[in-house]
Amino acid sequence: MNISLRRGEKLYLNGAVIRADRKVCIELLNDVTFLLENHVMQAQDATTPLRQLYFVVQLMLMSPNDTAAAIDMCRGMLASLNLACVDPRIVTGLALVAKHVDGKRHFDALKAIRALFPLEQEILNAAPACSDGKAA
Q1: Helix or strand (DSSP H, E) at 19
Q2: Which candidate, 5, 27, 31, 93, places its Cα nearest to that of 57?
Q3: Does any domain span residue 134?
């Protein structure tokens, strides 16, 4: 697999952070876990349930030697989301995420969660707004 990085761009590779000082192409010759900088979510951006799930799975990918607590948190979040979600597209997507997490395919889990972001936004946009904290 070939990865192209621009000057100053970061690559998270098997728990290490690599920053390119110039434009570079890296060829990965074996099976590694990696995350490109543009797929990294900052904690302050984890503002919805699916974004929070993404952040937790991201932690597993970025710190592969310290995943026990994150896996427990992820499983709890998946269980809660499955109880709360009625949209079959999200439920199906969450099942795929769970399968990837159980198979330690965290990058694929992140990809599946990102695919659910537009559905989550659609649902949030359709929810009635409550300015006084009471249901409309």
Answers
A1: strand 16-19
A2: 93
A3: no
What predicted TM-score, i.e. pTM, was given to this entire model?
A: 0.81
CB 54 within 8 A of CB 46: yes
What digits encode the pLDDT tens for the residues 38-77?
889 999 999 999 999 999 999 888 887 778 888 999 999 9
Q: How many helices (H) and strands (E) does the chain have?
A: 4, 5
Kindly state whether residue 109 falls inside one of the protein's structural domains: yes
Q: Tell me which residue of 134, 28, 128, 14 sits closest to 67, measured CA to CA.
A: 14
The tokens describing 11, both together, are 């690559």
Look at residue 133 and tell me if it is in a domain. no
117 and 66 part of one domain: yes
Residue 32 lies in domain: 2-38
